[in-house]
C-alpha cells in the first residue's frame, strides 16, 4: 500500500500540470498530472505523464501510469498491478516504476531528462515555459 502523499508534495507536483518547458535546439519537456480517486492501478491517486521530446516531436523518455506494462526479466513474471512505469527510450514499451512518493518521482524523471539531453548535447536550461490547458 502506498502511503498518503504529503500535501506540500502534491501541490508542488500538481503545479506542473499543463506545462511545457522549452529547451535549446527545439527540445521540450511536457507535464500532465491530475488527482484521481485511488485505485489498485493508481494507488497514490495520481494520473500522470512526464515526457521529453526531440524537436520533431518524438518522445525520448517518459514516466507515466496510463497503462500496465510487463515485468522486466522474464515472460513468466506476474504483471505488476500498479500502472506506474517509465520508457527509457522512445521505442521502449515501458518498464515498471516503483512509485515511492511525489518528490522521488520528479527527481527520477529529471535524472532521466539530464541523461537523455546530455546524450543529445542539449542543456537542461529552460528557455521558455508554455502553459497548456490543465488536466481536468
Main sheet attributes: strand count, strand direction, barrel closure: 7 strands, antiparallel
The helix content is: 10-25%
User: N- to C-terminal separation?
Assistant: 26 Å
Count of all domains: 1
The H-and-E topology, N to C, reads as HEEEEEEHE
Strand order, biggest sheet? 6-5-4-3-2-1-7
- Rg from C-alpha positions? 15 Å
Number of helices: 2
- Specify the oligomeric state: single chain
Shape: globular
In total, how many beta strands?
7
- Global structural class: alpha+beta
Give the averaged pLDDT, no decimals: 88
What does this structure look like?
This protein is an alpha+beta fold and 136 residues long. The chain has one domain (7-131). Helix content is 19%, strand content 26%. The chain has helices at 7-14, 102-119, and strands at 19-22, 28-35, 46-53, 59-64, 85-87, 95-96, 128-131. It has a seven-stranded antiparallel β-sheet with strand order 6-5-4-3-2-1-7, with helices on one face. Strand 1 (19-22) and strand 2 (28-35) form a beta hairpin. The longest helix is centred in the last third of the chain and has 18 residues, at 102-119. It is globular. 23% of the residues are buried. The mean pLDDT is 88.
Amino acid at each position: 500500500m502506498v502511503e498518503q502523499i504529503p500535501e506540500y508534495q502534491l501541490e508542488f507536483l500538481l503545479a506542473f500540470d499543463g506545462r511545457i518547458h522549452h529547451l535549446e535546439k527545439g527540445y521540450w519537456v511536457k507535464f500532465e498530472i491530475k488527482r484521481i480517486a485511488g485505485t489498485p492501478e493508481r494507488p497514490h491517486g495520481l494520473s500522470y505523464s512526464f515526457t521529453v521530446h526531440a524537436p520533431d516531436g518524438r518522445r525520448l523518455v517518459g514516466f507515466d501510469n496510463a497503462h500496465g506494462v510487463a515485468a522486466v526479466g522474464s515472460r513468466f513474471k506476474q504483471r505488476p498491478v500498479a500502472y506506474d512505469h517509465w520508457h527509457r527510450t522512445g521505442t521502449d514499451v515501458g518498464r515498471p516504476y516503483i512509485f515511492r512518493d511525489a518528490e522521488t518521482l520528479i527527481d527520477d524523471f529529471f535524472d532521466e531528462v539530464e541523461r537523455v539531453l546530455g546524450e543529445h548535447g542539449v542543456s537542461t536550461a529552460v528557455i521558455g515555459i508554455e502553459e497548456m490547458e490543465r488536466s481536468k
